[in-house]
Amino acid sequence: MALQSLDITRRSASPTASPQARKTIEIAKLIDVSTCIGCKACQVACSEWNDIREEVGHNIGVYDNPTDLSADAWTVMRFAEEESNGKLEWLIRKDGCMHCADPGCLKACPSPGAIIQYSNGIVDFHQENCIGCGYCISGCPFNVPRISQQDNKAYKCTMCSDRVAVGMEPACVKTCPTGAIQFGSKEDMKQLAASRVADLKTRGYAGAGLYDPQGVGGTHVMYVLHHADKPQQYSGLPKDPQISPAVQLWKGWLKPLATVGIAAAGLFGFFHYITVGPNHADDEEDDTAANVGRKEKQEDKA
Amino acid sequence: MKPQLIRRYSAAERINHWIVAVCFILLALSGLAFFYPAFFWLTGVFGTPQLARIVHPFVGVLMSVAFARQFFRYWHHNLLTRDDIQWMKSVKTVMQGHEVGDTGKYNGGQKGMFWLMCACMAVLLASGIIAWRPYFAGHFPIPLIRIALLAHAWAATILIAGIIVHVYAAFWVQGTIRAMVEGVVSHAWAKKHHPRWYREVTGKQK
Ligand code: HEM
Ligand code: SF4
Ligand code: SF4
């Protein structure tokens, strides 16, 4: 989304800091997996508000439809059937961007301002700056960004930044019939989650907990899980998501190393030339003065 | 050709070399633009950032084809011998402007550079294809694309540093650039820097 009236704290590929003086509160969306009924109203609301329509697909034998995130489907419900203690559990998770505090997509993006983070925590893509390289896909630990086949630009959930900017909740939150998606300050959402987790524990879900993974600095979309000890059961939600070490090496260590290496090659040439001088073949015999001068220089050094 | 000049590269070889060189410069500039945020403006070599992103891989393929032609022209001139190892060990002496060993068409440093370039080109081509959107990247798993992007940036860095040394060496050893521009070198140049090759092409013993 391009039009916005939120403060930007971080931009992709921008070496100097964005304005930092104003402080706004951090927001969060809390998805309570234990009260979600899988109705997909949020998917529809997302599609409505954002004017995106995924093509009608095929039934693949489970409820997942569309079967994956796409440039036209920024959130999808994933249905997992898990058997534990001889009981079948239907674990339904609303998948989409987690709005990481330390977003791998933003870290990887080479195009200035194509990915931005607002001071309230929302991570947004500004498609007009996107070059379609797909680095964000490699940077994301949650496999979220998708490149549109129409315009070769990356898209994902915006947390309805346009709505949030004018004091409204995201469309999915507004539409959820069971109140499984809540929106507010991150602090409030953590408190709400704590009471939900306590309730789940009294009902026998010993592993219940909040999913706010610290490996990415926490997220601005959090889950209440009945099995927070086994997040992978929820259609592969990563247990300890982190920006991949390959991406860290690429975007972290390699830059200073490359700078030193390339600069060293250039400086070597320059200083070699002004100290040793050119290597002539033709004037070996005749240009004695130059040779004498060169010899003296070498003796000086020795 | 004047009698005192020796032919080192044919017109076809020179054209081939400069196709690779021009492609390389365009690739290095646009690539560094993707790599260093502060140099993003270098995407301007292809007009706009989006165009640079789209065109870079195609230029890469063109360069790979041209480089492959060079590989098949030159690989057998670049097999390492014991003399070359000796040359590499004495690189300090060489850098003072003294010759080491009875050098043939290429010296140990040139041969080392040849194989370094081959290795980097191979890595750049393979990793570049794996990371190429929208055509190929979708067919590879994301963890592999991450490794490819890392390898691509590494190989590009090594190659760029290597090419700086390559260009400097050609400039430092006066009379060398002429070999790749006009195709010829002087007798003195050949006798001094590539004595064995000099004897081979002229049939002279001294
Ligand atoms: C051999 C064929 C090559 C192919 C197929 C290729 C392909 C690619 C692709 C697909 C990208 C991602 C950006 C984009 O989609 O345009 C890229 C980035 C890049 N390329 Fe190449 N390339 C090749 C050769 C080269 C060469 C010769 C250099 C420079 C010496 C180079 C330097 C770079 C750099 C520095 C990046 C940015 C990497 C980063 O952001 O860390 N590439 N290349
Ligand atoms: S989940 Fe992925 S796309 Fe969303 S903010 Fe985190 S890294 Fe970026
Ligand atoms: S595809 Fe667009 S948003 Fe993603 S990393 Fe590349 S420029 Fe940034």
From TrEMBL, chain A:
Major site of localization recorded for this protein: membrane
Stretches that traverse the bilayer: none
Stretches with biased composition (Basic and acidic residues): 293-302
Keyword Transport: yes
Keywords on record: 4Fe-4S, Cell membrane, Electron transport, Iron, Iron-sulfur, Membrane, Metal-binding, Repeat, Transmembrane, Transport
Keyword match Iron-sulfur: yes
Database matches in InterPro entries: 4Fe4S_Fe-S-bd (IPR017896), 4Fe4S_Fe_S_CS (IPR017900), FDH_Electron_Transfer_Unit (IPR051555), Formate_DH_bsu_Proteobacteria (IPR006470), Formate_DH_C_sf (IPR038384), Formate_DH_Fe-S_su (IPR014603), Formate_DH_TM (IPR015246)
Pfam family membership, one: Fer4_11
Xref: SUPFAM superfamilies: 4Fe-4S ferredoxins
Record-annotated 4Fe-4S ferredoxin-type domain positions: 27-57, 88-120, 121-150
Region annotation (Disordered) ranges: 281-302
Compartments in which it is found: Cell membrane
Stated name of the protein: Formate dehydrogenase-O iron-sulfur subunit
Source organism phylogeny: Bacteria, Pseudomonadati, Pseudomonadota, Betaproteobacteria, Neisseriales
Automatic annotation (TrEMBL), chain B:
Keyword Protein biosynthesis set for record: no
Membrane topology value: Multi-pass membrane protein
Source domain of life: Bacteria
Residue ranges constituting the Cytochrome b561 bacterial/Ni-hydrogenase domain according to the UniProt record: 8-183
Record key words, sorted: Cell membrane, Electron transport, Heme, Iron, Membrane, Metal-binding, Transmembrane, Transmembrane helix, Transport
InterPro entries: Cyt_b561_bac/Ni-Hgenase, Di-haem_cyt_TM, FDH_cytochrome_b556_subunit, Formate_DH_gsu
Cofactor needs: heme
Protein's cellular compartments: Cell membrane
Transmembrane segments: 20-42, 54-72, 113-132, 144-171
UniProt similarity note: Belongs to the formate dehydrogenase gamma subunit family.
Protein name in the entry: Formate dehydrogenase cytochrome b556 subunit
